[in-house]
Structures are given as structure tokens and as C-alpha cells.
Design a protein that fits this description.
95 residues, alpha+beta, two-stranded parallel ribbon, 5 helices, 2 strands, 49% helix, globular
Length: 95
């Protein structure tokens, strides 16, 4: 990740263990994932997450993720971007 960043690539990491549990609904899981991604990319000040989520209520949670990446992330970061998704993020930092 550090090497990519030194080459000008925007990088963000999302640790899935921080998002939900087996009791979390699919909609809440995707909402949490998108919110965490927006937070880590410092995008929460650029749009109203709750309003945006509700405006897309007619879409499935997977489609909301696609729309978030297409409409918000790629618009804000037109350069290369890498999203690291891990459930072992905390452990990997110790190696």
C-alpha cells in the first residue's frame, strides 16, 4: 500500500471485521461498508450519506455499492485507486 501511494495511487483499506456480525442484514452490511469506505476516503463531507442512501432505496444494496463507486468515488478520484478489503487488516499491520 505504501509503495502504491508513493507512486501516486490513492489507496484505502477497509477491515471487514469492523462492519458487522452474522446478525447484520445485507442492507445494513452494505450500508456500513459504503459508509466506512466513504469515511476512509474522507468523502463524508462531500455528500449526505443518509439522503444518498435513501434516494437509491429502489436499488439493491449491491447496486448501491456500484453507484457509490461510479458516482462518488471515481468522480472524486479520477486517478488510479486501489481498495484493500481484508478481515485480517489489524493482524497484517504487525508483519
Amino acid at each position: 500500500m505504501n509503495q502504491l501511494q508513493s507512486e501516486g495511487v490513492t489507496c484505502v483499506a477497509v477491515d471487514l471485521t469492523m462492519i458487522g456480525s452474522k446478525d447484520t442484514t445485507i442492507e445494513r452490511w452494505y450500508g456500513s461498508f459504503i459508509y466506512k469506505l466513504a469515511s476512509n476516503l474522507q468523502l463524508l463531507s462531500k455528500f449526505n450519506f443518509r439522503s444518498w442512501w435513501q434516494e437509491l432505496d429502489f436499488l439493491s444494496s449491491v447496486e448501491k455499492l456500484r453507484e457509490f463507486i461510479d458516482q462518488i468515488v471515481l468522480e472524486e478520484f479520477p486517478q488510479k485507486i486501489v481498495i484493500f478489503i481484508s478481515s485480517l487488516l489489524v493482524l497484517s499491520e504487525h508483519f
